[in-house]
Amino acid sequence: MSDSPTNRIQAQFGASASAYVTSAGHAGGADLERLVAWGRALAPARVLDVATGGGHTALAFAGFPARVVAFDLTEPMLRTARQFVESRGAAGAVFVAGDVEALPFREASFPLATCRIAAHHFADVGAAVRQVARVLVSGGSFLIQDILGHDDPEASRFITEVERRRDPTHVRSYRVTEWRAFLRGAGLTVMDDAIVPKVRPWEEWTTRSRMAPEAKRDLERFILDAPARCRDAFDFRLDGERIESFTDRMLLLRAEKD
User: pTM for the full model?
Assistant: First the structure.
């Protein structure tokens, strides 16, 4: 098997599928509540959930449209998501495997698409956004949530290194201006936005990615040795030299197809 980005993502998330289903940070919170509120106001008949992961977003949106299509690159993750969503009694959900840069759907197939806490893994975010725009109807909406990139270059380099050491499939997180450019380039206009903090408990966050003990120790030493201003930018909480948590800022956007 070649060491392509696709294969790395499938290897990383295929083995971690069940951990994402039980992840509290993915299961809910003010971020998901905001996305659902936006979606409910649009009253869509059909929703595409891109990079569905453990299926939490698909489940949340299955409560009001007639049909949710949960889409993911990693088939073991998709099977786990199906089991999770169906165990919660959601009806009408369909599960499809494939690459976000080549969505297997006709143009203008969906009035609403979602993508939550996944785009930082995409090799080409612009291409992915253009694919989503292609399958949206005119006037349809794309609801996006992802880690917000930091405007300070040193803080941005620091957290990118932290993320990549914990999960090598992490590409990078994008700033608001970059997201607006991706969307504008695909013919989408931002209509609503929000920034929501999300606390990452350290043990759960590192365990979910199956970090080897030595790699985890090296990462913790990297963080403790970093400038305090970098740790402060992400509110790293320490108990002596033990890391308890840090906080991401989640960017939420509702963009409408022109």
Answer: 0.89
